[in-house]
Amino acid sequence: MTQTFEIAVFEGDGIGPEIMTPTVTLLSSLSEASRGYDLRFSTLPAGAAHYAKTGESLPESSLKSAGAADAILLSAMGLPDVRYPDGTEISPQIELRKAYGLFAGVRPVRLKPGQASPLNLPDNREIDFVLIRESTEGLFYSQGRGEVTQEAATETLRITRDVSEKLFRFAFDLAQGRKSTGRGPGRVTCVDKANVFRAFAFFRQIFDDIAKDFPDLIADHAYVDATALWMVQKPWDFDVLVTENMFGDILSDLGAGLMGGLGLAPSADIGLHQAVFQPCHGSAPDIAGRGVANPHAMILSAAMMLDWLGLKHNNAALLEDGRRLREAVENVVARGDRLTRDLGGSASTEEAASAVMRAVFAA
């Protein structure tokens, strides 16, 4: 029986529409060839360019429609010269996280053996771990509401038991799933700064409490500064890392650097009911309209969307196509097939996406 899924699409700013178009084309092609599912897309307005025209960054109608969809596919958002009156950038993606309670920011870091990396890795080394960033509170809690005077500025870091418990259960469940498929040893590392801040000691205690419910998994801790060091020295040792919002924001970019750049870094923000899938990189207005943007992170984010929908709805066809799409990108990059300039090539956005299309349907 074919299942139908409604996908809300935010095309984004800058290069956002340029990388979203081939991604939706790929997803549509997979959907048309499948007998197990059907994807239907609805494009919704939001973003910095929309704010510049209307004074709204995320219209209430878009928020309502996206919330009713089965999944949300979001491209790069924001423009550096379009800001709110307080000087902060337009960021509907953060508004979506808070509105829907998308507490788990999932940032996979994957490097196949032999794939180019800024690190001098042995040929047989594979990197395959997942960083989970709490996405609704932490140091982002007081976004837009921090106190600023002539003498000082104060932002509030907030960690709650309710959100942390959901976050840690998500992390252990993910590690359990990775272990069952042979992709990890079943290890979850809590990344914090519990030696200095009471808030992180609280965070760590909640982690330890939840870990007791998963006796077949390994639970350990690491300070954030040491984790940054080890991500460079021995990234193959990690399985699932879970951390606070700001720490995760920083470490996820380091993870992208291990893979060769933000052009290969997908992400998902997942809650109990909704989920948003988007590339980690920005809108790059300096190259917008030139047809040279790297579409791979957007495509990989779409693959994560298929995986999430497949698991949530017990749909094997979605899971299979999510795998096919992810592996197609990985194989194209490993072969150096039609790479964009950020990866050392000269391919256009269309050429890079077409290479992935060929790889998907050749498999």
From TrEMBL:
<keyword id="KW-0520">NAD</keyword>
<dbReference type="GO" id="GO:0051287">
    <property type="term" value="F:NAD binding"/>
</dbReference>
<dbReference type="InterPro" id="IPR024084">
    <property type="entry name" value="IsoPropMal-DH-like_dom"/>
</dbReference>
<dbReference type="InterPro" id="IPR050501">
    <property type="entry name" value="ICDH/IPMDH"/>
</dbReference>
<keyword id="KW-0100">Branched-chain amino acid biosynthesis</keyword>
<protein>
    <recommendedName>
        <fullName>3-isopropylmalate dehydrogenase</fullName>
        <ecNumber>1.1.1.85</ecNumber>
    </recommendedName>
</protein>
<dbReference type="InterPro" id="IPR019818">
    <property type="entry name" value="IsoCit/isopropylmalate_DH_CS"/>
</dbReference>
<comment type="similarity">
    <text>Belongs to the isocitrate and isopropylmalate dehydrogenases family. LeuB type 1 subfamily.</text>
</comment>
<dbReference type="GO" id="GO:0009098">
    <property type="term" value="P:L-leucine biosynthetic process"/>
</dbReference>
<dbReference type="Pfam" id="PF00180">
    <property type="entry name" value="Iso_dh"/>
</dbReference>
<keyword id="KW-0560">Oxidoreductase</keyword>
<keyword id="KW-0479">Metal-binding</keyword>
<dbReference type="GO" id="GO:0003862">
    <property type="term" value="F:3-isopropylmalate dehydrogenase activity"/>
</dbReference>
<keyword id="KW-0460">Magnesium</keyword>
<feature type="domain" description="Isopropylmalate dehydrogenase-like">
    <location>
        <begin position="6"/>
        <end position="356"/>
    </location>
</feature>
<comment type="subunit">
    <text>Homodimer.</text>
</comment>
<keyword id="KW-0028">Amino-acid biosynthesis</keyword>
<keyword id="KW-0432">Leucine biosynthesis</keyword>
<keyword id="KW-0464">Manganese</keyword>
<dbReference type="GO" id="GO:0000287">
    <property type="term" value="F:magnesium ion binding"/>
</dbReference>
